[in-house]
Amino acid sequence: MPILPFMFLFAALFSGAAIAYFVGGASILAFITLDKARYLAALPQRAMSQLDLFAFLAMPLFILTGELMNRGGVTEALIRFSMSIMGRFKGGLGHVNILTSVFFAGISGSATADAAALGNTLVPTMEKQGYSREYATAITAASSIIGPIIPPSIILIFYGALLNTSVVALFAAGVVPGLLLAAVLMVVNGVIAHRENHPGGDKADIPPFFQSLFTALPALSLPVIILSGVLFGWMTPAEAAGVACIAALLVGAIYRRLSFKDIHEACTRTVVLSGAVFILLVAIATFGYLTSLEHLPQKLASLIAGLGLGPIEYMLVLNLILLLAGMIMDVKAAVALLGPLLIPPAIAMGVDPVHMGILVGFNLTVGLLTPPLGGVLLILTTVVDIGYWRLVRATLPFLVVELILLGALIFIPEISLALPRYLGLLG
C-alpha cells in the first residue's frame, strides 16, 4: 500500500487539529492513490450502516446525564459524603478524592470531566489542609481515570458498538477492575501519607455521616439506577441512559442548583460532543472500508502467525501499542482507529472480547496520565495552574501502580470476567 497517506496521517496527528478530518482525509487520499476511487460511491451507505447502531443511542444520553449532574450541585454533596467516611484517616482527603472519583464514575464515565470538576473543588481544599499542590493535583489526576472503567463508560459503549460486543457484559466487567483501581490508589495514598506526614482528619472538619448520606442520596441513586437496570436486565443501556437523564434533572431540582441556563448549556455541550464523536465515526468508517478492501486484518493476522506470536506475546505487544496511542491520541479516536484493526487477531487467538474491552479502556485511560501529552494532565495544569512536568513527576507513583494493575488484568482475565460470568452475560 502507498505510504503517502499514512505519512500524511502521522504528521497530522501532531498538528493539533481534529483527528477526524485527518483520518478521513488520509483515507480518501489512500482510495485515490490505490486507484479505488470508484468504491467511494458506496461510502455514504457504508458509513451510515456503521452509525445506525442501537448501542450508540446511549452515548449522547450518558454525556447529557454527566453534564446535568456536574452542573446540578452533585460535586459538593459527594465530597461531603466521602469526607464523612474517609476523612478521619491519615491522609484522609486523599482517600476522599479517590472515593469521590468512584462515585463520579457512576455518573459521568469521563476521566476529563471528573478531573476538571474535582480539580476545581478538592485541590484547593487539600492545599488549605496542608497538602502540596503537586500531590493534591496528582492524586486527582490518578483517580480520575476510574471514571471510564466503572460503568456507565462512554469508552466501553464505543468499543461494544465497534467490535460487536455486549455493552451490558462490558459494564459488568468494568466494576471489579474499577474498584480494584480505587483500592490500590488508596494503598499508595496511605503509604505516602505516613511517609510525608500528611494531615489526618480533624473531627471538627468531618461532616456527620447520616446527614451527609441523606444529602448525597439523590446523587448516589443515579449509579444504582444505571447499574441495577442494566446488569439485571431491566433496561437496555440506552433505556438506562434515558432514565438517568430524567433522574439527573430531578437531582438538580432537589439540590436547587440546576437552572434553565444550566440545562441549555448542558444540552449544547452534549450536542457539540456527540457531533464530534459521530464525525469521528464517519472518518473511521471510511478507514475501515479501505482496510476491508485491502484485506488488512487478514494480512495482519498472517503477519502475526508468521512471527509466531502466541496470545500472551501478542497481548503484550498490543497493549504497548495502545499505551503509546493513549499518550498522543484522543481515547475514543484510538479505540475507533486501532480497535477494528488490532483486536480481531487477539480474539481469533482465544482472547475474550469482553476482557479485551476492559484492557483497551484501562490502557488508553492510563495514557491520559502519560507524557508527552496526557489529556488529564493538560486539563489539570490549566485548572489548577501548576507546571506540567512538576505534575508529571508527582503523578509517577500512582502511574506505576496503575501499570502494575494493567499487567495483572492482562495475565488474570478472571478479574474482569468473574462478575459478567456470574451474571450469565458471557456467551
UniProtKB/TrEMBL annotation:
Keyword Nucleus in record: no
Signal peptide span: none
Pfam families in the cross-refs: DctM
Spans through the membrane: 6-32, 53-74, 94-123, 135-162, 168-192, 213-234, 240-258, 270-291, 303-326, 333-351, 357-384, 396-419
Keywords: Cell inner membrane, Cell membrane, Membrane, Transmembrane, Transmembrane helix, Transport
Predominant cellular place of this UniProt entry's protein: membrane
Cellular component terms per the entry's GO annotation: plasma membrane
Similarity section: Belongs to the TRAP transporter large permease family.
PANTHER family xref list: SIALIC ACID TRAP TRANSPORTER PERMEASE PROTEIN SIAT-RELATED, TRAP TRANSPORTER LARGE PERMEASE PROTEIN
Free-text function comment from the UniProt entry: Part of the tripartite ATP-independent periplasmic (TRAP) transport system.
UniProt name for this protein: TRAP transporter large permease protein
